[in-house]
Design a protein that fits this description.
Chain lengths: ~270, ~270
């Protein structure tokens, strides 16, 4: 056939340069794995020992000390939920204006967009445990530090996703309101908000779900909640209590998941 | 209405024109004009249809009038006010005197039909009151009357995304008329609709505009529909006006000049 048309009918998906680049990429990934394994310095004795240690730990955790729940777990658990909920609400309040500033279709000033995005990125780039360490240093140990840590970590998450939802809003309805002579606050409230409302509630609930899980560990650095109780129990080698707390956290996380899924379905 | 209004003798015409465009030019990219120094006078009554091939600047022309598109040069005189020079509050106040109907309806889908119609009053209602849904009773009554007129009263509390295309455009028209505009713009109002619905929508828009004495400027690529409903026709080709006259005066020669070629006419 190629002889008939006189044109070489050869087809390759990638050019030689592209193939070389792809090979270099794969090679790089393997090399990185090898190098990091050497850096981690796995001690073989500890590795072989691991199953035994796990079995030992589980044995010490059993039987779970259920009777300890009303005395030492319940209040801490409720405090954890309070930290998560208050922190998330605080974050949402601060994230909404940042989301508006980050969305280029609402704030048509590139420098403002970048400033807002920079603030959102810095919020996200710091782990909530690190935020907690900072706020423990400022406010002292306790639930306030935990709440602020959750809030500051959540701003970036909520603000970024809310800003992106705003940017995806259809411009048509907004144009129609503009053509009717609506001032910008009305355009935000009646043109953009109805379009992003389901996304907003979805983001807020999802973040609350994450916050519940994160606030459970904040106590390890003294920022209140059930993490503090776990820390204490571990230091005293009361593993049957640690087990109880883990079960409690697991139950709360599952319940939160169920509630969030239910509400999301109702909204969308 | 069969008289042909020409830019040159517009001052001689007895009734003041609804809109006068002088030397309107629009370049999206420098040196590539989409509108080439257009001058037209629109009478203060009747339906003016702008026809022409796709990409010839019909939509840009309509959108320049209420400044959804920024004109590069020229004047747009609306009852003596140069729309091309307005900014901020003055522009908003001018915009609320001009209603607009869109090809894709541009309704806020998650709001109810009633709230979409009331949105036509957002230029007059304070943002806080709009947010709290405290529209003046007068506006609510006017909205119900319009819903009666477009035949959607029983859909008042349904969400706009529950409606069909034709019904959505009815809401779009009601929203535009809700402004009590002195001019109604329509950007391809029937292009997303089937032929039967298109005629119904045109009939509705023309009837509403005539009963309220609102002059209409619409762009449309369907020539028979333009001939049937318009009292005046503007033919555009390549960013310039090549016909400005009555529907009766629009000949096949004109159409050839506007659209180019002739095989499609048979």
């Amino acid at each position: 056939m190629s002889a008939a048309s006189g044109i070489e009918r050869e087809w390759r998906r990638y050019t030689p340069a592209e193939r070389l680049a792809r090979f270099a990429l794969y090679f790089g990934i393997v090399a990185a794995c090898v190098v990091s394994l050497r850096t981690v310095q796995v001690i073989p004795e500890f590795l072989y020992d691991a199953p035994e240690q796990v079995a030992d730990l589980l044995k010490r955790m059993w039987p779970i000390e259920w009777s300890y729940y009303p005395k030492g777990v319940h209040d801490a658990l409720i405090e954890t939920l309070h930290i998560a909920t208050l922190g998330t609400i605080l974050a949402i309040v601060m994230a909404i204006p940042l989301g508006f500033l980050a969305a280029h279709n609402i704030t048509p000033y590139t420098s403002v967009n970048y400033l807002a995005k920079l603030m959102l990125v810095s919020s996200r780039s710091v782990n909530s445990l690190v935020w907690a360490l900072l706020f423990v240093a400022i406010f002292g140990p306790g639930a306030l530090a935990g709440t602020m840590a959750i809030a500051f970590r959540s701003i970036g998450f909520v603000g970024k996703l809310f800003g992106e939802a705003l940017e995806e809003a259809r411009p048509g309805p907004v144009e129609a309101l503009k053509a009717a002579g609506a001032p910008w606050p009305s355009i935000l409230v009646k043109g953009y908000w109805p379009q992003v409302e389901p996304a907003f509630w979805g983001i807020a609930l999802f973040r609350w779900d994450i916050s519940v899980r994160e606030s459970a560990v904040l106590g390890l650095v003294g920022a209140g909640g059930i993490g503090m109780a776990i820390d204490t129990a571990m230091n005293l080698f009361r593993w049957e209590r640690v087990a109880l707390m883990l079960v409690a956290i697991f139950t709360v996380v599952v319940l939160a998941e169920i509630v969030v899924t239910y509400i999301r379905k109702k909204i969308i | 209405m069969s008289e042909t209004t020409r830019p040159a003798d517009s001052s001689a015409a007895a009734p003041a024109p609804a809109l006068e465009i002088r030397g309107l030019r629009k370049e999206y990219r420098r040196g590539v004009p989409v509108l080439r120094d257009i001058s037209i006078t629109f009478a203060n009554r009747g339906i003016t249809a702008v026809i022409g091939p796709s990409g010839t600047g019909k939509s840009t022309l309509i959108r320049c009038i209420n400044r959804l598109v920024e004109p590069t040069a020229g004047k747009i005189l609306f009852h003596g006010l140069d729309l091309a020079r307005l900014h901020g509050k003055a522009l908003r106040e001018a915009r609320r005197r001009i209603g607009m109907v869109f090809q894709e309806y541009n309704l806020v889908e998650r709001l109810t039909v009633m709230e979409n119609v009331l949105s036509g009053r957002l230029g007059y209602v304070a943002p806080l009151k709009a947010w709290l849904r405290r529209y003046p009773q007068r506006d609510i009554e006017a909205a119900f009357e319009l819903l009666d007129a477009v035949g959607l009263t029983e859909y008042a509390n349904q969400r706009a995304d529950a409606l069909s295309g034709g019904q959505r455009q009815r809401v779009g028209i009601a929203r535009a008329v809700m402004q009590q505009p002195e001019l109604l713009l329509a950007d391809e109002p029937t292009s997303s609709l089937d032929p039967k619905t298109s005629v119904e929508i045109m009939e509705l828009m023309v009837a509403l505009a005539e009963s309220r004495h609102i002059p209409v400027i619409l762009n449309i690529h369907n020539v028979p529909l333009a001939r049937r409903f318009a009292t005046h026709i503007i033919g555009m080709s390549d960013g310039s006006i090549v016909y400005d006259g009555s529907p009766e005066g629009l000949s096949d020669d004109h159409l050839k000049q506007i659209y180019g070629g002739e095989n499609w006419l048979e």
